[in-house]
Design a protein that fits this description.
Butyryl-CoA Dehydrogenase, subunit A, domain 2, four-stranded mixed beta sheet, 10 helices, 13 strands, FAD, AcylCoA_DH/ox_N, acyl-CoA dehydrogenase activity, flavoprotein, Acyl-CoA dehydrogenase domain protein
C-alpha cells in the first residue's frame, strides 16, 4: 500500500513547516499558552478547516491533510489546540446541519475546544455525571484545554439513555473546570455516534502529532550519537547504542504506518473506532519507547528542562493519556476478540 503523500499534501507540509518556523517560540515547562497570532496564521493557511465541507467554511479536504499539519506541529514542538479545535468543530457539524460556531472556529475568530472530561473519573466517551433536563445542564467538566484563553466549549450530556451535544459560547471557568449548572447552552444535532466520529478525528490528529514528536526525538538522538564523544570516539561507534537507536527507528516506522493507515481508513469510514483503538495502542507503546530511549541515550542533558528532547517526551506522554490511554484502548480492542478457539499448549 502506498503511504506517500501527494504533491499537494507535501506542499501543505512544507507550508506548515515554514509557518511554524516564523512563529515558533522556545518551549517552556508547564501548560501551553494559546498564541493568537499563530492560530490566525493556521486559519489563514486553511489548516483549521481541512477535514470539513466547504459549506461550513472548510477546505473540503480530509483527515490525511490534517495529519500532514499535525506532523509538523509535533516535529517542531509547537503546542497549539489543533486536535482539540478539530474535535470541537466536528462535534458542531453533523449530518443534520452545522452550528455557526463551527464556521467561527474554522476562520480562527473563536477558539472552540471540547469539554469531555469529568473530575475524579476515568476517561469515558459517554458522560456519567453530566445530565441535561429541558435544555439545562448539570454536572462538572474538568481538565478543559486552554481554558485560560476563555474558549467556547462543546460538551456532552446524558438525557435518559441518549447522549446529546451542547455548545457553550461564553462559559465561566474556574481554572480548567466548568460547572455546567446555570450556564447558557444550546443543543447541537447529533448523538453518541457523532461524538465517536469527532473523537476518531481528534485521536488521529493527536497520534499524528505524537508521530511528529517521535521523529524529532529520534533525529535529536541520532545527531547526539554522531557528535558526542566518549573515550575519544563518537557514541555511534558503540554497537549497543546504535542498536538501541535502530530499535527506536523500528518503533517510529511502525507508528507511522499505523497513523497513515488510520488516516486513509477514516477518509473512507469516519466511524471506524476499532481502527482508532488499534492505532492508539500502537502509537502509545511506540511513543513511550522512542521518548524514553531518547532521554536515556542523551544521558544527563536529556533530563534538563532546557533541552528539547524532554519536551517531546512530555508531549508524547500527554497525548497517550488523551481520549483514553493505552490500557483503555487495549481493553476496548480485547472486547472485539471473540469466537476464537482456545488451545491448551501444555496438553
Amino acid at each position: 500500500m502506498d503511504f506517500a503523500f501527494t504533491e499537494e499534501q507535501t506542499s501543505l507540509r512544507e507550508a506548515t513547516r515554514d509557518l511554524l518556523a516564523r512563529h515558533h517560540a522556545a518551549p517552556v515547562p508547564g501548560d501551553a499558552e494559546h498564541d493568537p497570532k499563530l492560530w490566525q496564521a493556521l486559519a489563514e493557511l486553511g489548516a483549521l478547516g481541512l477535514p470539513f465541507a466547504e459549506d461550513v467554511g472548510g477546505m473540503g479536504a480530509g483527515p490525511v491533510e490534517a495529519v500532514a499539519v499535525a506532523l509538523e506541529l509535533g516535529k517542531a514542538g509547537v503546542r497549539a489546540p489543533y486536535a482539540e479545535s478539530l474535535t470541537a468543530t466536528q462535534l458542531l457539524c453533523s449530518d443534520e446541519g452545522f452550528d455557526d460556531l463551527a464556521t467561527a472556529a474554522i476562520e480562527g475568530t473563536r477558539l472552540v475546544v471540547p469539554a469531555l472530561y469529568e473530575p475524579s473519573r476515568a476517561w469515558s466517551p459517554t458522560p456519567v455525571g453530566v445530565t441535561a433536563t429541558a435544555g439545562s445542564l448539570a454536572g462538572i467538566r474538568a481538565a478543559i484545554p486552554y481554558a485560560a484563553a476563555s474558549p467556547a466549549v462543546v460538551t456532552t450530556a446524558c438525557v435518559g439513555d441518549a447522549v446529546e451535544i451542547y455548545a457553550l459560547d461564553a462559559p465561566t471557568f474556574a481554572g480548567a473546570t466548568v460547572d455546567l449548572a446555570g450556564q447558557e447552552a444550546r443543543a447541537i444535532p447529533g448523538g453518541a455516534a457523532h461524538v465517536q466520529r469527532a473523537l476518531n478525528l481528534g485521536t488521529l490528529v493527536l497520534a499524528a502529532e505524537a508521530l511528529g514528536a517521535m521523529e524529532a526525538a529520534l533525529g535529536l538522538t541520532v545527531d547526539y550519537l554522531k557528535t558526542r564523544k566518549q573515550f575519544g570516539v563518537p557514541l555511534m561507534r558503540f554497537q549497543t547504542l546504535t542498536q538501541r537507536a535502530a530499535d527506536m527507528y523500528t518503533s517510529l516506522e511502525l507508528a507511522r504506518s499505523a497513523v497513515y493507515f488510520l488516516a486513509m481508513t477514516l477518509a473512507e469510514n469516519p466511524d471506524d473506532d476499532t481502527a482508532v483503538s488499534r492505532v492508539k495502542v500502537i502509537v502509545g507503546k511506540a511513543g513511550r519507547h522512542v521518548g524514553q530511549e531518547a532521554v536515556q541515550l542523551h544521558g544527563g542533558i536529556g533530563m534538563t528542562a532546557e533541552y528539547a528532547v524532554g519536551h517531546h517526551l512530555a508531549r508524547i506522554t500527554a497525548i497517550e493519556h488523551t481520549y483514553g490511554d493505552t490500557r483503555f484502548h487495549l481493553a476496548k480492542q480485547a472486547r472485539h476478540v471473540k469466537d476464537n478457539d482456545s488451545r491448551d499448549l501444555l496438553s
